[in-house]
Amino acid sequence: MYLVTMLGNLLIILAVISDSHLHTPMYFFLSSLSLTDISFSTSTIPKMLVNIQMYSKSITHAGCLTQVTFFSLFACLESLLLAVMAYDRLVAICQPLHYLVIMNPRLSGLLVMLSFFTSLLDSQLHYLIVSQLTFCADVEIPHFFCDPSQLFNLACSDTFTIHILIYFIGVILGGVPLSGIVFSYYKIVSSILRVPSSHGKFKAFSTCGSHLSVVCLFYGTGLGEYLSSAVSSSPRKDVVASVMYTVVTPMLNPFIYSLRNRDIKSALWRMIRRVA
What we know:
The chain is an all-alpha fold.
């Protein structure tokens, strides 16, 4: 699944770079999302594969902190990029005549950079919080990577304040992008419903279908992971929920965009023909 994730997202990036027809804000954000998906999976899966190959389940304290940092960075970045892409669709549908003026290359680059630096701040906060935890001895994490929530449960130090801080950060950096996505689609649906022809409505909805599917997949599996860890005491169920969130979602994203998007499919075929 990791190789499929790498290959699928890499093909999306190469298709966007190689085809001048795709040099638009929407596909710039899509290639940024694909790069984030590759990085998101890479933050956890390679270490797991090495452990399987070496018949070892150990990880150093420094390695665990590194994993927490990069996992938090790319999880937050994916959430913010999905919000940026929702705003992009809002402008494209509600103000089509001014789309290229509003979503100019400078603003597009600024939105991606702002998302990255916000995610970097989030990752550093997670690093500082986890680095302050104390453990009584060598601990066994019932997971395939250093999940911060599992580390908080295993810590010997008092984590009440840490839990409050983590939930606050989660509400701000997870809830705000989600609220932006919901607001964007509220405005999009309101605008589409005013279109008189059914063909026009279908065409407008089709431009949002892929993004909406990815949003539902990302937040649905993320919420599933949270509810699983909060409600269930079964480590196995927690691991299954995390696999869906960290492995399956990044793997499916390029398929969702390529199968539902004629421009991406055409660009991929042209790229394959040039290589062949």
